């Protein structure tokens, strides 16, 4: 372990704070794919030294509340919605523009799971996707390389989706595996592609157990072990108790300077302090598929949560493809387009499949016509 001085931007205030933090050496980050490890740099996240600061706890809760609205004020919403939709129009309304922008390029699909392919439900173990959605994603994977990118443990998200032909990036991309069968897009024989945080596993397990113990006193609190990260779900906790639960989580994290905390929709998540997120996972998967430096690739990422913003941002910075935010209400986002709920995601994916099928048929007919012309020409 070495001490490292860093400047960390406070996510809420934007103020830079100098901190001294213990970080581990490179041996901590050995990878399954023998790839250079990501740097141990905390992003704009809460630092351990300030973790029990009352204002900070409130900031977590406020931020989580903002991304998980439980009450919607109809009057103010209507104006906000109108102006927001101008900047983030429906991907269904903009379908023709989207497909024409992808002309001549390989579309690669990235799909979040919770709130994107399945509805958000009170019990995270029962966030099932419909058979219709499964059939749609199966068809999608026939025409485009497709990856599921989730905060959940990879095995868990696979148990919900059950499609062997997809790429899976679990634990916010810290656990990536290629298709086990049936995909024409499968590259190489290696099943597990990347696990950049494998040496954090014992620590994550320890924190999971500590969080289970400490949150017992809060009714409705749910702790989920996602293998490379831990989620504390607030979905079934009375909003009056959110600060108390956040304090309990903060107290446990005090002992783990190599872990950081992020907020999502009614969830606090604890992850290793490595610079790895859904955006990095997207880049890694594009590279694995052979599109690292290609200009003829068109990645489409659909997600509903704050953690998906890292992927939206990568697409904006690359100037390739686009992000689609799944949300019924206006939210600050790096996504270009929006869809309101999983049923609209399914409608969009179906249109994409139908459009691709039609274009392939058209290409096939044109090729056949050219062959016929060639044959009919005198030698
Ligand atoms: Mg989600």
From TrEMBL:
Gene3D superfamilies: HAD superfamily/HAD-like. It is an enzyme of class 3 (hydrolase). GO terms for biological process: trehalose biosynthetic process. CDD domains: HAD_TPP. Pathway: Glycan biosynthesis; trehalose biosynthesis. Keywords: Hydrolase, Stress response. Its cofactor is a divalent metal cation. One of its GO terms (molecular function) is trehalose-phosphatase activity. SUPFAM superfamilies: HAD-like (SSF56784). It catalyses: alpha,alpha-trehalose 6-phosphate + H2O = alpha,alpha-trehalose + phosphate. Its EC number is 3.1.3.12. It comes from the Eukaryota. Belongs to the trehalose phosphatase family. Removes the phosphate from trehalose 6-phosphate to produce free trehalose. Trehalose accumulation in plant may improve abiotic stress tolerance. This is Trehalose 6-phosphate phosphatase. It comes from Sesamum indicum (Oriental sesame).
